[in-house]
Amino acid sequence: MTDRVRLGVVGAGFVADFYLRALSEVRDHDVVALAARSPERGRQLADAHGVPHVVSSVEELAARDDIDIVVIAVPQDAHLAAVRAAAAAGKAVICTKPLGRSGAEAAACLAAVMEAGVWHGYAETAVFAPAVMHAKAMVDDGGIGRVLTVRAREAHGSPHKHATEIDRMGGGPLRGLGCHGVAVGRWFLEGATPVEAFAWGDRLDRDDVDSEDNAVMLVRFDDGRLAQVEAGWTHRPGLDNRREIHGSDGWLGVDETGPGALAAFAGQELDYVGEKAGSTRGWLRPVLDEPRTYGYHGQFAHFIETFRAGVAPRQTLADGVIDNAVIDAGYRSMASGVWEPIDLSGLTGPPAEITTDSHHRPAEREAR
To answer: Which of 74, 60, 70 is nearest to 90 (CA)?
Structure first.
């Protein structure tokens, strides 16, 4: 075991705030510094969470001698440059999801940490959510027999500004939200490899995006089992996270954002109800302790523990490569209308040419 792990966080936005909220309840680490393009925003977030130092770039952060791990909490169009800067400085890397805007970009992130020989973790919160982890433990205990199919849905009606820009996002909700479903499907269908995908996606309602606003994807594995992934940006009530695991001798259902311990009627507007809340007034079902419910605590506790022990974590950047490759196949299927093979060559070979001009753009149409 190493001593306390010293972290530096890249970003001062929504994800960085959730990370710091979760880290405040995780042991055996110190957040030493935060990198932010806006000094004012960075200082405000740092002061709110007791982070002593604020710097202006990932390069400056990675160059510090008092940092062991660089935690990347910025949109995915900035991931590759941040991963490369951290790896070049010999620092371990934790990167948020999705790893890149394409399988090739994700593969370039993996190549950077592999060439540098640094420890790396992929911050895919969905498989660290307490309810999902408990369901997996029940599966591993044989409670529902052999898992046959998995259905994973994630949707809301309030994408972040950067997410609506297809060239920054690498697609639409299938990339930004569907990555969670792909990860959940792969985890519960453990031991199998995704080989092909079939997907539908379209812009049904939103006029502020160039991508699809709804998508459904089927992912077939090499042993014949199937994962179904649903993602959308038209779910007006707020965040909708549900997972179903169907087995040969049972079923498990996880509803992270469903009815909880608190119900409320607010006659006046509230400042904050929950992530992507559809309303802050009227009948409300707030999600209690969102970072913990969504898996932020679980993932960082795991990352700190495995880094201190000198072992690979359960989710590495290789998982981000696979998930992005599956989504790439889904977007190709949207265009072709047929099952498309999943290219996993980014796990072992040099990354393909990185482009951002092949993202799925639905044909122009009037909103229906």
So the answer is: 70
